[in-house]
From TrEMBL:
This is Histidine kinase-like ATPase. It is found in: Nucleus. Signal peptide: none annotated. Belongs to the DNA mismatch repair MutL/HexB family. Residues 224-346 form the DNA mismatch repair protein S5 domain. The chain holds residues 9 to 366 of 718 of the full protein.
Length: 358
């Protein structure tokens, strides 16, 4: 024994490497849900149902009526870097889907029990498959791992059970299941606003009444009213801000934001860039600045902002957990949007004054 000598370097076990990597993508039930939601939306679903037990740690199930997965694709479904959305490097710049790296299901299979029931329109029946560590596994020990034919509707149901069962430290950090459930509802609420035409529901397993439920074919305004309440919706303004060059749009944005009449304690800010829920402290600060000249101190607005930019100007190849985005001409785009908000809010308060005078 040499007290001063270095410890030998050893290669980590493959399964441990995968588990560590998965934990970087799937932080908590809500981050798994975000991936699954994006998959369902990529699959063209118009109805998405979520069922949750123990804040998503015991059970997180998402059922959609999207295009389904072909039976022949099931064996590699949960392998890392398997995707139907990207085949060449140049595709990366033209992406219109949420997913592309084929890592979500793989990651989930390393830190949870994953099963899938899926049916395409042309298939006569559904198939069910179970996954562990990226690979197909039997439903019960001793059985075959082949996907089994079963009854099922068109679409896909993904079931995640016992999330983080094999990473006890992560699991013990997530003991507050009602907090995890609140985060799940928050992600769902935001996607339901951004996808107002899609019907969403979320309930706890065993409960008959959903905690979140939206009909299909709503408008954005109706969805905001339903999910955030009438007090926000009645003071809601809307703006569309675009920039075009050579007859084609360089970028476009749509904003729903409260007028000077609405004052909350904490800002509600929903930011979607190319339909992906993201965070940007810089954009948030710029909007807060607009309102700080309008609202009394301590009061905050509701703002839902959706920006569509050329996929080539967003760096999508950042780490998947890096929700904080950066894109080309960010400052210029932010300034134009903020100027437009400022003008609309000023206009809104003028018309209120005008109402008083008549
Ligand atoms: P990515 O979304 O980056 O491609 P995922 O691991 O999330 O990677 O999914 C892998 C593949 O599984 C997808 O490319 C898609 O073909 C298929 N898939 C996953 N979820 C669904 C779903 N709900 N409906 C249809 N296909 C799905
Ligand atoms: Mg995906």
């Amino acid at each position: 024994y040499e007290p001063s000598g270095p410890a030998p370097i050893r290669r980590l076990q493959e399964s441990l490497i995968n588990r560590i990597a998965a934990g970087e993508i799937i932080h908590r039930p809500a981050s798994a849900l975000k991936e699954l939601l994006e998959n369902s939306l990529d699959a063209g679903a118009t109805a998405i149902r979520v069922t949750v037990k123990d804040g998503g740690l015991k059970l997180l199930q998402i059922q959609d009526n999207g295009c389904g997965i072909r039976q022949s694709d099931l064996p590699i479904l949960a392998e890392r870097f398997t995707t139907s959305k990207l085949s060449t490097f140049s595709d990366l710049s033209k992406l219109t889907t949420y997913g592309f790296r084929g890592e979500a299901l793989a990651s989930i299979s390393h830190v949870a029990h994953l099963s899938v029931v899926t049916k395409t329109k042309t298939s006569a029946c559904a198939h069910k498959a179970h996954y562990s560590d990226g690979k197909l596994v039997p439903a019960q020990p001793g059985q075959s791992e082949e996907p089994k034919p079963c009854a099922g509707n068109d679409g896909t149901t993904i079931t995640i059970e016992n999330l983080f069962f094999n990473t006890p430290t992560r699991l013990s950090a997530l003991r507050n299941t009602s907090d995890e459930y609140a985060r799940i509802l928050d992600v769902l609420t935001k996607y339901a606003i951004h996808n107002a035409k899609v019907s969403f529901s979320c309930k706890k397993a065993g409960s008959s009444s959903p905690d979140l439920s939206t009909p299909s074919a709503s408008t954005t305004r109706q969805a905001i009213k339903m999910l955030y309440g009438h007090s926000i919706e009645k003071d809601l303004l809307q703006a569309t801000v675009n920039e075009s060059a050579n007859n084609s749009k360089v970028w476009s944005s749509e904003v729903y934001f409260t007028s000077a009449n609405y004052q909350a304690k904490k800002m509600i800010f929903l930011l979607f860039i190319n339909s992906r829920l993201v965070e940007s402290s810089r954009i948030k600060r710029a909007i807060e600045n607009v309102y700080s000249g309008i609202l009394p101190k301590g009061a905050a607005p509701f703002v839902y902002l959706s920006i569509k930019i050329d996929p080539r100007s967003v760096d999508v190849n950042v780490h998947p957990t890096k929700k904080e985005v950066h894109f080309l001409d960010e400052e210029e785009i932010t300034t134009q949007i903020c100027d437009s908000l400022q003008a609309k809010i000023a206009e809104g308060s003028h018309s209120r004054v005008f109402e008083y005078q008549t």
